[in-house]
Amino acid sequence: MHIIDRRLNPGSKSLENRQRFLRRAKALVQGAVKKSSQDRDIKEVLEGGEVSIPIDGMNEPRFRREGGTRDMVLPGNKKFIEGDILPRSGEGRGRASAPGEGDSEDAFRFVLSRDEFVDLFLDDLELPDLAKRKLAEAESEGLRRAGYATTGSPANISVSRTVRLALARRVALRRPRPETIEQLEAELAECDDEARRSELLAEIDALKAKVRRIPFIDPIDIRFRRFETTPKPVAQAVMFCLMDVSGSMSEHMKDLAKRFYMLLYVFLTRRYRHVEIVFIRHTDRAEEVDEDTFFHGPASGGTLVSSALQAMHEIVRSRFRPADWNIYAAQASDGDNSTSDSDAVSRLLTEKILPVSQFFAYLEVGESGGSTFDMSDSSLWTLYQRLRAEGVPLSMRKVSDRSEIFPVFHDLFKRRRKQEKVAS
Prior knowledge:
Layout: H1 15-37, H2 42-45, E1 49-53, E2 108-112, H3 114-121, E3 141-149, H4 159-172, H5 178-190, H6 194-213, E4 224-231, E5 237-244, H7 251-271, E6 275-282, E7 286-289, H8 291-296, H9 305-319, E8 326-333, H10 342-353, E9 359-365, H11 379-389, E10 395-399, H12 405-413
Parallel strand pairs: 5-6, 5-8, 8-9, 9-10
Antiparallel strand pairs: 1-2, 3-4, 6-7
Helix pairs in contact: 5-6, 9-10
């Protein structure tokens, strides 16, 4: 018999320490991925690349002996002599202050593939409050136990059920027990009566013949675990992307908004199979467009945010029944909006949009080099702050530089505990 250890943890390793080490290494890699992605373009993120983590973070925990008296034989050296004080382990490490001075230690560098890089970046992200509602008409199938079968793969043999059936068959057919034959053989060895010996020999031969006729395990006893495909509950979700493309949006602002939506698009298509994405762009009027027009089509004009919210409301009412769909929305704007439009925006949000939405995020974009606090007096930001003060669930963030897109996106869609409310 050959036993092959296929566990993820090799032999002579502490299971708990090994798992703790793997979790720590994964966190370091994820941190390196997020840090390197801040200075990359969206397309560069999708291509993977090289990341580095500190060597110290790769050390695996182990037990060390402290104290006591030990005899050790060390090789000779040309640097120290008897009586010298050796430096403490770790001293002198770090980055050298000048070329040729001090010791340094390289970081652990490795290359991640496209899929590995994106999966690590999106690993702890999710759509907030995703509820399982009506089953989608999708090809999502899972396996479930469906009893036992007399045929199947050897890997699916049910040992317990097989042994139970074999035992029941042996009992029903009165298969002789090995102990019974051993007792008769012991009696035969001590018996001196020839007549009795003949009876014992005949009985032993008959029992052994019956044992051969009734095997310990018969092919009819073997049972295999059976599985059958079953549809799995799939949550249907729709994401509305609302982007301001009016004349007040500079090219830098539009670039920030598009980067945010490109990252959102990658996140949704990679992590969820059944998520509809609706692209709406607006000036003083809104229109539903396709993906290419949303990201690349030119547009300009005045600004009426209520037009985009009204378009979203009409699409929800006509195509996405709130009882069957999880509805999300992400809005990007520079915060400029007509003062006369504030009442319409407030009414649409509080009465039409937010009551049927799982999550609504607002991203305000600013000019390059400006502080995020410089945008606090925009009309739309002030309106949304007032609505939040009244208890309306809105998540609001500001960005003014490319490097802020990834942290803000991660903050909006990071995985939260069930009892934790969505951070706003």
